[in-house]
Specification:
It is built from seven helices and eight strands, in the order βββααααβββαββαα. The protein is an alpha/beta fold. The strands form three sheets. It has a three-stranded mixed sheet with strand order 1-3-2, with helices on one face. The chain has a three-stranded mixed sheet with strand order 4-6-5, with helices on one face. The radius of gyration is 21 Å and the shape is elongated. It has helices spanning 38-52, 59-69, 72-85, 100-111, 155-170, 185-191, 197-206, and strands spanning 3-9, 16-21, 24-30, 120-123, 133-136, 141-144, 174-176, 179-181. 14% of the residues are buried. The chain starts with a strand and ends with a helix. α1 (38-52) packs across α2 and α4 (100-111) packs across α5 (155-170). It has two domains: 3-85, no CATH class; 100-206, 2-Layer Sandwich (Zincin-like). The longest helix has 16 residues, at 155-170.
Length: 207
């Protein structure tokens, strides 16, 4: 049995680290869990050790840990920690060919009756083909990949990506015990109302 060193650390998210160094197991846990019940810490211990030794994680421990994270007061604390400690690069909404604020306002009026508050909008710092767009609730920001700020990009494609992220404002993540649903049935149904939905999806799939 190796020696263990376990510490709670002020991470910017609910992150945990486990590694073997010089025959000793070093564990860093998010300080968000400092007051967690022993059963939750036990579940997390099983999860981390299973990953360290590349063993299957018992389902009952995964479920117990996820149920804890899905509690409303824990989710609220996670958002607060991300806002205070997290570093978020946010650039400008004006690109070389498309202005995200102008497109947001047009979509907001056309599809949301101008009821959505405009978050911070930015093109990404790098050209990403994996993260095409995302909504960051902790920093109230929508980031769109600079990949699409090009003269040959159809405007409807940028509109669709922004429309998809705007739906996240209207349809927040749903939590039910250990389940976390990012794209609900209502979200999916409304997404398909976008006039160029099929064409946009086809273009994105080709990437």
């Amino acid at each position: 049995m190796p020696e263990f060193e376990v510490r709670f650390r002020p991470y910017a998210d609910v992150n945990h680290v486990i590694r073997i160094r010089e025959g000793r197991v070093e564990v860093g846990l998010s300080d968000l869990l400092e007051a967690a019940p022993p059963t939750v810490l036990e579940a997390l211990a099983f999860i981390l050790l299973s990953k360290l030794y590349r063993k299957p994680v018992p389902k009952r421990y995964q479920t117990r840990y996820r149920q804890f994270l899905n509690r409303r007061h824990i989710r609220d604390r996670v958002h607060a920690i991300r806002r205070v400690r997290g570093r978020k690069w946010i650039g400008e909404p004006a690109g070389n060919h498309f202005h995200l604020e102008e497109i947001f306002d047009e979509l907001n009026e056309k599809y949301f009756n101008s009821l959505l508050g405009r978050p911070r909008l930015s093109w990404s710092r790098t050209v990403s083909r994996t993260l095409l767009g995302h909504w960051d609730a902790a920093h109230n920001a929508i980031i769109v990949s600079k990949l699409f700020d090009r003269p040959d990009t159809p405007r409807y494609l940028v509109e669709y990506i922004l429309y998809h992220e705007m739906l996240h404002l209207k349809h927040p993540v749903e939590h039910c015990r250990s389940r976390r649903c990012v794209h609900s049935l209502a979200f999916r149904a409304e997404e398909k109302l976008f006039p160029h939905f099929t064409a946009a999806k086809h273009l994105l799939d080709s990437l």
